[in-house]
């Protein structure tokens, strides 16, 4: 069972958080570091949000939708081959970390090689890591590698929030069934955040809500940031 309890908020508070998220993601966002080895990681600074998911889950598209940029995050031409952590600075208040995709059929040793080495060490030992956004494709069944990643995140004691992608491809009834199935799965993992967010990078579904969720983890806006 999950240890988390979904926070209750008023419509006014929800709107305030959405506006805070809009302002945060409307600001500057720039790639500043790529690390292929653990000893190459940048010095910890702002809170970090890591995006994880199977190859072709739509991770790059969602990051681009969040930031309002067309090519900030780029998908590899060969899924499953990228082994690099890419760091993006969001106005000095939050760092987005694009993790390598997992689960690609042609990738050698799949999850064990890609994640239980450098990735697990990053997840377990990064002091500024606040949350992992775990992306699942709403159109397909949950794979063995997805279950393995959730178990790995439990072991690393890293809070993760499940976000369903490509939700525009499902009818409303089917989407609610999928949400219920994934919510039941989340309750079986102690590190899982209880709420399941539905998103689409095509029509913007869920993007304001995800921005608001991440803005709540960002450093507060200071006078220096406002004036810069």
TrEMBL record:
Residues 45-220 form the EngB-type G domain. One of its GO terms (molecular function) is GTP binding. Gene3D superfamilies: P-loop containing nucleotide triphosphate hydrolases (3.40.50.300). Its cofactor is Mg(2+). One of its GO terms (biological process) is division septum assembly. PROSITE patterns: G_ENGB. Keywords: Cell cycle, Cell division, GTP-binding, Magnesium, Metal-binding, Nucleotide-binding, Septation. SUPFAM superfamilies: P-loop containing nucleoside triphosphate hydrolases. HAMAP family: GTPase_EngB. Belongs to the TRAFAC class TrmE-Era-EngA-EngB-Septin-like GTPase superfamily. EngB GTPase family. Necessary for normal cell division and for the maintenance of normal septation. This is Probable GTP-binding protein EngB.
């Amino acid at each position: 069972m999950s240890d988390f309890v979904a926070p209750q908020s008023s419509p006014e508070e929800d709107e305030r958080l959405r506006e805070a998220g809009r302002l945060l993601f409307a600001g500057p966002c720039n790639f500043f570091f790529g690390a292929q080895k653990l000893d190459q990681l940048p010095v910890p600074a702002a809170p970090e949000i890591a995006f994880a998911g199977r190859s072709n889950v739509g991770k790059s598209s969602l990051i681009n939708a969040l930031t309002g940029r067309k090519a900030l995050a780029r998908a590899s031409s060969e899924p499953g081959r990228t082994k690099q952590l890419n760091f993006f600075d969001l106005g000095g208040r939050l760092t987005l970390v694009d993790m390598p995709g997992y689960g690609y059929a042609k990738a050698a040793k799949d999850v064990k090689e890609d994640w239980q080495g450098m990735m697990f060490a990053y997840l377990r030992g990064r002091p500024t890591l606040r949350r992992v956004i775990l992306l699942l494709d709403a159109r397909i069944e949950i794979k063995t590698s997805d279950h393995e990643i959730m178990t790995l995140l439990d072991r690393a004691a890293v809070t993760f929030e499940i976000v369903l992608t490509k939700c525009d491809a499902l009818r409303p009834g089917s989407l609610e069934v999928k949400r219920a199935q994934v919510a039941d799965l989340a309750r079986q993992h102690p590190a899982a955040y209880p709420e399941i967010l539905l998103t689409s990078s095509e029509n913007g579904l869920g993007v304001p809500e995800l921005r608001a969720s991440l803005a709540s983890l960002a450093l507060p806006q200071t006078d220096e940031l406002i004036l810069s």
